[in-house]
Amino acid sequence: MFVGERDPFTGHQTTGHEWNGIKELNTPVPRPVYFFLITMGVFALAWTLLMPSWPYGSGYFKGLLGVDQKQAVAKSIEEATTGRAHWMTRIEEEDLLQIQSDTDLMHIVREDGRTLFGDNCAACHGANAKGNKGYPNIAQAPMLWGDDPQTVLQTVTVGINGTDPNTRVSQMLAFGRDGMLTKDQVSQLAGFVVSLSDPTTVTDNNKEDMAKGKDLFATNCVACHGNDAKGIVESGAPNLTDNHWTYGGGRGDIYQTIYSGRQGHMPSWGKRLTPAQIKIITLYLLDLRKQAVGPVTGGAS
Ligand code: HEC
Ligand code: HEC
To answer: Which CATH number fits domain 70-156+274-301: 1.10.3720.10, 1.10.760.10, 1.10.287.1080, 2.60.40.2470?
Structure first.
């Protein structure tokens, strides 16, 4: 082998090959490159042995470590569902008061409740439950049928003037349209009803009409709204003195209510939602009511 000749310009040895006077320098690939290639090779070999890698016929080599991402995903999904199933079973089995006092369960209620309310109730009652004209503000207004948890659950289950055989039934009669009262009488009643929540509307000029309205109220309205006009739960007739209105509290709205009557339709949810879902929505709503302090807004009240 040729040894020893050095290229005077670069200082490298030559390989001894020469073409037409051009000599080839002996510049080997640097060691770090070999080192790098060998390390990568070893790593790749080790990786294919340890991790799932080579396919064969009907499957693939599963790797010595037994790591399987598909299994890992399936396992975490399974864990999540069993976790959920566990919560759902508790919500199904425990009674409303128990759930209300359990912070973990209420966490689930707040999460699921928001979605369920958004999907099923918000169209009528608004996303914040504060209602629209014709749809009561169920975040803040008093519940006509009672507001203890079991009663609200029942209202949501059977509905109001709904399709369930046990539905709550209520109707505000059309006193004007059905000829029970004249327009003047309806107008006197409207004025009187306004004055129930706003006594400043009584003036020297309208005192007589107000007195007539009061008499008409005693004869026509107290059967459902009560002697004190504060509502009777069994008839679903609202308190007319608290300035919460489903159909508007302006004199014109109230005239319209007395003249043409009202009958709100609240769907029966018993067949559309599962008992657990109804529980969650009810608890979500009651929780919302606890937090909904501050001025009453929305068309409803
Ligand atoms: C199609 C419209 C509509 C939808 C959807 C609807 N509601 Fe109602 N809801 C009403 C009306 C109208 C009333 C008032 C009925 C009345 O007083 O005559 C009402 C009243 C209520 C009340 C008050 C009961 C009381 O005692 O005063 C509650 C609570 C209630 N709804 C809950 C819900 C929940 C929860 C959902 C969703 C699962 C829902 N509503 C979906 C129309 C609706
Ligand atoms: C047969 C029972 C019944 C009688 C009688 C009755 N009401 Fe009502 N009234 C109701 C019911 C039930 C509602 C609730 C309707 C609803 O929410 O859909 C109501 C609602 C109202 C409202 C609307 C309240 C709101 O939140 O917007 C006014 C106002 C009202 N009644 C006034 C009167 C007056 C005045 C009379 C007498 C002339 C009268 N009612 C007689 C059952 C009755």
So the answer is: 1.10.760.10
